[in-house]
Structures are given as structure tokens and as C-alpha cells.
Amino acid sequence: MKSKPLLFPQARHYDIIPMGRIGIDLNANEINRPMEETETFTKYVGGSPANIAIGMARLSKKVGFIGRVSDDQFGRFAKNYFNNEGIDISNIIVDNEGSSMGLAFTEIKSPTESSILMYRDNVADLKIDPKDVKEDYISNAKSLLISGTALSKSPSREACFVAMEYAEKHNTVIIFDIDYRPYSWNSKEEVAVYYSMAAKMSDIIIGSREEFELMEALIDPENTSDEVTAKKWFNHNAKIVVIKHGKEGSVGYTSDGSIFKVKPFPVKLLKSFGGGDAYASAFLYGLMEGWSVEKSLEFGSASAAMLVASHSCSEAMPTVKEVEDFMNKR
Amino acid sequence: MKSKPLLFPQARHYDIIPMGRIGIDLNANEINRPMEETETFTKYVGGSPANIAIGMARLSKKVGFIGRVSDDQFGRFAKNYFNNEGIDISNIIVDNEGSSMGLAFTEIKSPTESSILMYRDNVADLKIDPKDVKEDYISNAKSLLISGTALSKSPSREACFVAMEYAEKHNTVIIFDIDYRPYSWNSKEEVAVYYSMAAKMSDIIIGSREEFELMEALIDPENTSDEVTAKKWFNHNAKIVVIKHGKEGSVGYTSDGSIFKVKPFPVKLLKSFGGGDAYASAFLYGLMEGWSVEKSLEFGSASAAMLVASHSCSEAMPTVKEVEDFMNKR
Amino acid sequence: MKSKPLLFPQARHYDIIPMGRIGIDLNANEINRPMEETETFTKYVGGSPANIAIGMARLSKKVGFIGRVSDDQFGRFAKNYFNNEGIDISNIIVDNEGSSMGLAFTEIKSPTESSILMYRDNVADLKIDPKDVKEDYISNAKSLLISGTALSKSPSREACFVAMEYAEKHNTVIIFDIDYRPYSWNSKEEVAVYYSMAAKMSDIIIGSREEFELMEALIDPENTSDEVTAKKWFNHNAKIVVIKHGKEGSVGYTSDGSIFKVKPFPVKLLKSFGGGDAYASAFLYGLMEGWSVEKSLEFGSASAAMLVASHSCSEAMPTVKEVEDFMNKR
Amino acid sequence: MKSKPLLFPQARHYDIIPMGRIGIDLNANEINRPMEETETFTKYVGGSPANIAIGMARLSKKVGFIGRVSDDQFGRFAKNYFNNEGIDISNIIVDNEGSSMGLAFTEIKSPTESSILMYRDNVADLKIDPKDVKEDYISNAKSLLISGTALSKSPSREACFVAMEYAEKHNTVIIFDIDYRPYSWNSKEEVAVYYSMAAKMSDIIIGSREEFELMEALIDPENTSDEVTAKKWFNHNAKIVVIKHGKEGSVGYTSDGSIFKVKPFPVKLLKSFGGGDAYASAFLYGLMEGWSVEKSLEFGSASAAMLVASHSCSEAMPTVKEVEDFMNKR
Q1: C-alpha count within 13 angstroms, C-beta hemisphere, residue A193
Q2: Averaged pLDDT of chain B
Q3: To probe the interface with C, which of B133, B170, B172, B189 has the most C CB atoms within 10 Å?
Q4: Weakest-pLDDT range from A85-89, B22-26, B35-39, B206-210
Q5: Which segment of A12-21, B69-78, C13-22, D303-312 scores lowest on mean pLDDT?
Q6: Measured between CA atoms, how close is C158 to chain B, in angstroms?
């Protein structure tokens, strides 16, 4: 174990700077039917790291963001929305080379059957350029969150690694949210290569069991043990590894050898997606407040339960009081 | 004048086969504001030749279509919609190489100020392949309508020229609806080259004054006279040339030397787009019914007026009776 | 027959402006073996329309050229070579976007077995842009020669059609040398579409039987008759159609109904390629001198025989006196 | 210093497996003039890791190779050449998707002024795919050499990282020859990111001062000290860092704190390139023989001197005896 304990450098302006996808969700209003029969859609800001940014802002953290948006009505909507939430938009570049905001049309066939129709050709979020990444922005943040999908294409991939190099240089905590989306990756080998590289540099790694196995496909393809997985990354820079098992709940490992398990809150589902970003936001909030890993995981789990019962993945992000109220009612 | 009079070959199954764009319109429900503030959108089938197909079907013509749709919920919605309208969908190919339906988000800031936010990367409609075009489908139609935007990219461009070669061989009337959209063309020279090629082969050419000038930019860049324009194309294969002048109305020229002018119907605008496809459908309906060019143009103008007063460009296409009622009320 | 007789407009500066490929041939010095065993290569200017330009210049015609070369040693070599041959290089653009000269490494396994290893990615010659084509250059020429390969890709394809539009407008004789090369075309349908378009606008069409069949694949796929072929193009703008049958010789058809056949000169082959460009040059020279079609074809055939007995396709192009001496020795 | 001493695992079949570029050099025969005036070229196998493979084979080492060649005469020539040199070609894939061998036409204007005209579009060597990399090939080698240019493009980039993951897993010594070529990289940031990643995983790093500065451009942009550079990489996995200073000679640093300087051998230059690959081969040969770093660097320097005095970069690679004879004559 070469890892040192996790420390958020305190005297910095931003609590967290997520980096990566910011897009538009268009959620079906007429639900419990196939999308062919949907008549109207409601527009929200979406994208995993954007949702986490909004989640953290609702939890009253100081939030920045590194990303690109399109030079059109949807791009302006997203920036305005962030600005209204109190998120710093100084490092969100307006792309002037004709890219578009990614779109996610969500289809909710039933509480457990959903699918997403993606528009991801020529998307602004994957145009983040290494030159967009400012060293002093990152040196002024307690943590940097890299969303795995941002590693799937150049130049966004290189921009993320540049950001991580700066974070490493300035002891900014690196959080890697694996967030695997099969579209846009060319091969399983590519996934394994770049996920491993990011994981080696990260202090906190969050993902599902399946995502960790994709990441280890080259170096340890047979492994199915969470403990083996956690130790592997503790041998690099990780201090906390969180592995999610869907309905079974999730497990947090820390580099001092502790293990924490948490079960999902029982809740009436509206849809089967959107919980993960609420989970990450609330969990990271807890860590930043100095809570124990266990308490932080519980808080994350509660927030996730609230999200899967609501129509959006961003607009519905709860405040601290709302999560606490929800937990108290149980 | 080498042109022969316009004759629709009678003993054929299809009255018209439009070829080209079929997409999804997402029209803002909260109108008279910028799209940044739109909250919900309603989904319609859209795209100029698709609108014309629907328009002709509502006017009880037998309609086919040559095009490509995506292999997803939106592609299936479009095919189902056509099928329900009685349009033959046997020559609409489902693209299996990951393309998407084009999207048009419409913003209605005021009755005279509109804009459209397009998603046209990797669109299914521009993937129509020369191999998709069946000679016997075209030889079994009275007319083929080529939408100019379908000429903007390969392989759709070549597919259109293949269709026109077959139409020429079998005396299927070729209708060229210039339908210029600046996105997706590489240069003004390219526009002029391919528009000219299509126009040389066409029997009926419909476009705005600006569109005709784009088409003649290489061979006659100074010309601003409708009459000179019409004569130029009568020297090739054209029998009818319709030139639109917006609020000033439009002019129809025939190769026998006649000229017909028609004014727009006064109407309370909801939006400033969507009229052109209704105009084309109703005008062509008239010609096919054997009406005079003049009466056909009037009928087209009436249908156009009905469309700009309604929320969609396809769903609102009127029946013959509805157009007649509208005209009688004036 | 709507065709008028072929007339080269006399009071013009240039006899001919070929348009299209200009590249580098690297011919194996150690011949009669596979290229794997070749040790050294000799460098020549190559490419069908470039060879024809050199051929016409050697025959003391005034020659221009429309094309693009790379901004490197090979591009400069080609321009210098043309300049030294007396060919006007004012319309040869130096491409500044990183393209390369096409390369053709020739392998001569035996006098009848040859192959060519092509380097044609990102080639300068297919970057000719519509904007490179100057109307007054073409209006100042008696003839424009379009090489079919230049139609295989944008923007060169559109540039050729722009040049043909200008030629049509100014009565510059259009010569279409089909020159089919399978690489770089996407489909047989594409070949048929663009070859047909070019042929419809041309006064003189030269190609092999196979090339004419590729061109007619859509409109008349069953036809194998030279006479039917010739008549088809006489119905458009053609005045002379030359169809080549390899060792069987070639046939020239004229729109007044005459037919001329010519046999190849017997000669000791060094290689099995390079004859066609010499043939075209010398044949066109004859026509421009006012010779009969028959005499012109003979002259072409003699020049072709001289080329296949020599090491290069450009450097070996003969003068009028050399062709005459060669013919007199038979 | 966390580094352990450098150890080549002994019981393995291959001494070294270079990975990356294999191409064709076409060297001007008529030298001391601009290439415009060159008439003939001689063909050799080329490309930095290919040259090193040949160099090591001439020094009687067991050599493998991971790469791709074109499916044509040049690809076959290269494989045959390797095979004749005794290099294992079982992991050289013949690319069947139409790529070409890279070409390097060398221009030797004077002994100190050279330039290279590259053909690198769609090259076979950058098509090495992660799936081409076999774990048991690498586990059966004492060392893997990664050539920096192979990191410049996908999928070759990912294939290299996969190879390095396998090498790390099996304790195969990783040698990183920075070999920076400005063409084919998109930005300085990209260079810095991927060079750093490769260097962090490497046991031996060889490059010029300029190359090390490109690599450190993000993390330590001001540094100009060789010692600071060497220490930085010793903090990761490096055991030996060799920094070249052109005519000033080169310096070898070892992780135990030793420093060795070596001067170039004085020699009559024929050309100003080709020395680096000979240097690397002979230096690595010495290390594998168990020689001191100092003696190995001298041996490398001698071999480099021999190469810059000869016409090719591969064919002229010396045997051990030839290097020794050369050194003894001084």
C-alpha cells in the first residue's frame, strides 16, 4: 500500500470541477409506452458530469466545470441553466466549429424498462481541447472529476489527461467516475487502455462491477473479486474505490483496509436511470464535509432513490435538507 | 423551343414518387419566445419531400417514396406515419449503418421571425444509395419529384441522378423542387453545377427567384429576369417553370409561351415556414387533375396559406375539400 | 441527329487545355521481374492528361493545363517539366493543404504483363477546386480535354463540370477521354452517372469498348454494339466517337454517319501501357490540322506504337517528324 | 528512487521486439542536388524501429517485430527482407484494408543539408490494432521497444499501450525510443500527454534534449536540465535515461546516480540522418551483453558514425566485428 490518506486541499476556491459531457435530455412526457407513440418531450440539461455539477451545486458546494457547448440555442440554454444554479461557467467554451449539443431522448416503457435514443454525432462535449484546460483553474480546486465517456474520443481524451497531469502536479484530488457508454468507443481494448490509465492516476474511483471488469480486461481478465480489484488500484494512487452492484447495493473500499456496504433505499421507481449521478454527488458531498465513508455512502444512496422516482436527471437534484427529510421519513 | 407539351403517362400505378429528405420536426409548444425558453416540443414527420408526399396523399393521390430512415424509434415512427397516410413504403430503406433521422427544432419567436435548429450530421436521408433506386418503381409512376437538398451529398446525389436517368428513359415526368438549404453544401459552385444538371433533365422546375439565381450562377450570373430564366430551361427539357417571389406572389411560365401570376392569400400567420410544400402539393395535384396552370397555381397558393397558419408542416396538410372550403370563404 | 459538324474555333490562343491528373511515374529500371526485386526506379512526369499535354506540346501545339500539384519537390519538378516543354502553367495551382503528388510505381514483369502500384491517397490532382477554373482561360482555347478519372472525386468532379459549363457557353470543343481507373470510384452506379453526364456535354468521346459499357450501364446495360453506342451520344452533343478494341484496333464514328477502322502498328513491345495517351495526342493533332478522321486515327495509332516500345509514358512522346519517320519505315 | 536495477529476464526466446514503423526508403542516387533534379532512386527497408530490428539482427540478436505492412509488392519486399535478415515475421500483419507502406524519399543536398519527402497518408504501420498484440509473444521476449511515432495515431497508439501493459505484467523490459516526427501529431499537448504516459511505464528512455522537452511540456515546461529530467523518470519506472545532444554527444543517466558522457566519433558525413537507429541498436546490444553503460554508449556512438557515412539507414547496419574494426582503426 503506497497510498497516502485522502485529503482535500482546503484553501481553494472550488470544491469540485467536473469535466466532460453536458447535453440536452428530451424526456418523453407520455410515458409507459414506446417512443414511437410519444407526442411531446420536455427539455432538461443532462449528461453525467453536468448532472453531478448540478447535484453538487444544489448541495451548496462551489462548483466549476470544464466543457464545450454548441453555439446555438441549446448551448446557450445549458450555460444559462448552469449559471442560474451558481455553477462557474468561465471554463465552458462555446464551440465555433459547428458542433451540436448531444441529445438524449428518453423512452420510459415501464418503471423498469427504459431506453435512450442518442444523438452524439459531432457533439460539442467531445471537442474539449487540451488548450481549453487551464492549469490555474485546476490548481484552485479541491477536486477534479473525470467522467469516463470524455475519454472515448480525441481531443476530449487528451484534454482529460492534461487536466489530470495538472491535478497530479497540484495535489488536486482526482475522482474518476467510470460512466461507461458503449457508443463512441472503438474497441474493448481501447476502453481497457484508457480507463486503466485514468484509474492509475485517480484518488477516488467509482463504477459498477461491470465497469471495473471492462477496465481490467487486459491486465486481469479473470478477476471477479471486488477486493482484488480495490487492491490493484490502491497499488497505484487510489484511496477510495466504490463498486456498485445494482439492486444488491454498493461497496466502498478504502486504502487503509476498511470495507463498507450499503443497500439501496426502497422506493417506487418512475424510471430505471438517473440515480448514479445523484449517488456520486451526495457521496462526494459527504466526503468533503468530513463524514465517514459509511455515512457518505448512505447519503448517496438516499439521493439516488429520490432521483429514480422523478422525471428528470438534473432538475430534480435535491438539497441537503431534502435528502435529510427523505432519510428521516424512512 | 424543343420542348414537347407536358404529359403525365396515364396507365401507371403511382401518381408521384417524391425522393429525398424525411425527418423529424420538433416544434416548440411555447411559442413567441426564443428557443432557450421553450420547455416542451411536439414531434411531427418533416422534410420537404416527405411533406409533399403527405400533402399529395391527403389530396387522395397515389404516392410512393424513395428514401432512407434510421433503424430506431424515430425511423419507425416516420415509416408508420407514412403507412397510415396510405403512402407506399416499400422503397423506404431502413439504414443499418448507424445513421440518424434528421431533426429540425423549430423556434417561433414571432409570426414573422422563425429559425430552425438542425441536427443533420450522419443523417439517414442522405444515405440513399444508387442501389436503392429500382427502375421498375420509377417506370410505374407518372412523376418523380427530386428535392434539391438530396443533391447536396453523396451517395444521395448519385441516387437522384440514377432515378432521373430511369425517369428519362421511361418518360416519367421529372419535377425538380429546388429546395435550397445552405447547410450541407460545400460551395456555391457545387450548388450551381448539380442544380443545373438536375434542371436540364426536368419537366417541371419550382423554386424561388433566389434559388434560380443560385442555379444560374455559373452560366448566367447577371440575369435577374424570370423570363430569361424560364426560356433557358425550356431550351432543355422543361415545360413548366414556377418562380416564387415571397409576399409578391409567384409566376408560372409554360413552354408554349404563356405566363401566369398568382398572389398569396391573405392570412393570419402563425409561423413563416411550411407554406412551400403545401403549395407544391396542391399545384401538382391540379396539374394531374388536368386543370389549367392558372387554376393549379391558385389552388397551391390557397393550401400554402392554410399551412402557415397552423403548427406543423405535415400533420396540417389539407384535403381537397378543406382547400376548397378555405377558398370559398374568401 | 441534332449534332452540328465539329469546328475548332480558330481565333484562340490555346489549341487544347487538358484538365485533371498530373503525377509522378516511378518506372522500374530492372525490368522483366516482379517489383519486389526491383532495386532502382526512374522518375518521370505521368498521368493521362499530363501525358497528352506533353504529347500535344511535342507535336508543336499550344497547350494549357488546369490542375493542382503538391507544394514539394515533386510538385515543383512537374511544373518545371511542363514549363520546359512549353506548356502554359499559369492555371496549375500549388496546393497548400498538404496533399501529395500521385505516384505510379510501374512493374514490368514481361512485355505483356505489367502492373502499377499506386499512391493515390490525398492526391493533389483531385483537389482541383471549382474556384480554380477561370472562364476566360477556357474561352481562349479551341478545346478542353476532360480526363475521366478527374470525375471520380469531389472537388475535382465539380471543377470539371464547371469547366464544361464554361466550354459549352463559349463553344470550346469538349473532348472526353474516359480513362477509367477502378480505384477511387465508389460504385459502378457512380461511374455510370458521371460519365454519362460528361458524355452528354462532349463533342468528342474516346474510350475502350469496356469503358463505354461502364458508361451505359444504367441506361442501356445490354448493348454491345459500337454503332448503337455512337448513335446514342450523337443524339446529345457528340460529333466524333472513338471506340478502342485493344489488339483488334479501333473504330471512329462521325455524326454524319461515317465509320473508320484502324489497326495497330506491329511493334516489339517493351511494356503493355502508355499507348493510349500517345494515340489521343496524335489523333487530336490530326483533327486540329484539318486532316480526315481516317488519317488522324492512323497517325494516332503510329504514335501509340512508338510509346509502348519505350520506357516512359511522357518523356518518349514523339514529334511530328518522328511519327512520320516511323510511319515511313513500315 | 523507487526504481529497481535493470534486469533482462534471461530465459526468453526473443532478445528484443521492436514495435511500430516499417516502411520504404527511396534514396536519391544523384546526390548533392535538390530532389527536383534527382533522376533515380534506390529502394531500401526503412522506418526507425525497422532499422533497429535490422541493426539488432546484424549484431546477432534474436529479434521479433510487431507491425503491419501493405498487401502489395512493397509490403512483401519488407517482409521478405526481414525474413532474410533472420527477424521473426510471425507478428507482422498484412493489412487487408487498402493501406500503403509509408515512403520516405530522401534528398541529400549536401553532407549537412538533407530533407525527406514523406508519403504517410493511410499508412499500414499506423494500422497496428490492439488485437494484433499477442500477450505470449511479449511474455517470451527480454525487451519491447516502442517507437514514439507509433503513439501518434489510433489504433497504433492503443496497440502500443496494450503491448506495454503486457510487458509490465510480465517484466519484459520496456524501451522507449522517443523518435519524434512532427507530421501526424495533432498538437503539442497530445505529444506531451502520450509521451509522458509511455515514459512513465518505461525502463529505458532514449531521446534528444528537444524530445525530452516536448515530453515534459505540460508538467515541467521550464526545465532545461538533463539531471532534473532523468530524476523525474527515475521516480516512475526508468532505470536508464539517455539524452542526445547532437554534435555535442550524449549523456546516459542511471537510477543509481551515475552519469556517463560520450562524444561522437569524427567521420566524413555522407548524409545527416540515419545515425540514431544504429546508435540505439548498438547501445542496447551492449546492455544485453552485460557491458557497462559507458562501454555500451561508446559502441552505439561508433555504429552511428558508420551509418552517417553510408547511403542507406538499414542495409548498412554493421555486424559486431565491423563495429569493432571501425573502433580499432581510430
Answers
A1: 30
A2: 94
A3: B189
A4: B35-39
A5: D303-312
A6: 6
Q: Chains that contact C by 3+ CB pairs under 8 Å?
A: B, D
Contacts of A170 (CB under 8 A, 6+ apart): A135, A138, A139
Per DSSP bridges, beta strands D23-28 and D173-177 are: unpaired
User: From CA B122, how far away is CA A128, in angstroms rounded?
Assistant: 21
CA B142 to each of CA A32, B287, D290: distance values in angstroms, whole numbers, following the listed order:
44, 12, 86
For residues C279 and C304, the answer to whether their CB atoms sit within 8 Å is yes
First to last CA, chain D: 39
Task: Give me the amino acid identity at A234.
Answer: F
Mean per-residue pLDDT, B203-209: 98
CB distance B302 to B262 below 8 Å = no
Residues 6+ apart with CB under 8 A from D321: none
Q: Which of A190, A192, A144 is nearest to A17 (CA)?
A: A144
For B149-163, letters b (16+ CB in 10 Å) and e give bbbbbbbbbbbbbbb
What are the mean pLDDT values of chain C's consecutive 10-residue runs (330 residues total)? 74 97 95 88 96 98 98 97 98 97 92 89 97 97 98 96 96 97 91 96 97 94 95 95 93 96 87 88 97 96 92 91 93
A292 Cβ contact list (under 8 Å, min separation 6): none
Q: How far, CA to CA in Å, does A122 sit from each of A98, B30, B122?
A: 8, 28, 9
What DSSP assignment string belongs to C159-209?
HHHHHHHHHHHTTPEEEEE----STT---HHHHHHHHHHHHHH-SEEEEEH
ipTM over 0.90: yes
> Min CA distance, A293 vs chain D (Å)?
30
Q: Do chains D and C touch (3 or more CB pairs under 8 A)?
A: yes
pLDDT for B219 equals 87
Q: By the 8 A CB rule, do A165 and A200 touch?
A: no
pLDDT at D294 exceeding the cut of 90: yes
Phi, psi for residue A159 in degrees, rounded to 5: -60, -40
Mean pLDDT of D120-141: 97
Which of C223, C225, C221, C172 lies closest to C201 in space, CA to CA?
A: C172
Between chain C and chain D, how many beta carbons pairs sit less than 8 Å apart? 61
Whether C41 sits inside 8 A of D35 (CB atoms) is no
Q: Are D67 and D94 in contact (CB under 8 A)?
A: no
C-alpha cell at A186: 472503438
* Beta-carbon pairs below 8 A across chains B and C: 62
Kindly tell me if the per-residue pLDDT of D272 is higher than 90. Answer: no
What's the pLDDT score for residue B306? 94
Neighbours of A136 (CB within 10 A): 9
B117 and A43 in contact by Cβ < 8 A? Answer: no
Q: C206: which strand partners?
A: C177, C242
pLDDT tens sequence across A286-327: 999 999 999 999 999 999 999 988 888 899 999 999 999 999
User: Distance between CA D308 and CA D89 in Å, rounded?
Assistant: 28
Between B159 and B108, residue with greater pLDDT: B159
Distance of CA D249 to the CA centre of its chain: 18
Side chain identity, residue A37: E
Instruction: Tell me the three cell numbers of residue D295.
Output: 562501454
**Neighbouring residues of D117: CB distance < 8 A, sequence distance ≥ 6:** C72, C73, C74, D35, D104, D105, D106, D107
Q: Using the structure block, give the residue that is written with the C-alpha cell 511493334.
A: C267
The Cα diameter of chain C in Å comes to 56
CA-based Rg of chain B, rounded to a whole angstrom? 18
Is pLDDT larger for residue A37 or for residue C44? C44
- B107 vs A: CB within 8 A: yes
Query: Residue B39: helix, strand or coil by DSSP?
Result: coil
| Nearest-angstrom CA–CA distance, C147 and B193 | 18
pLDDT (0 to 100) of residue C36: 87
- Give the bridge partners for D27, in sequence order: D42, D106
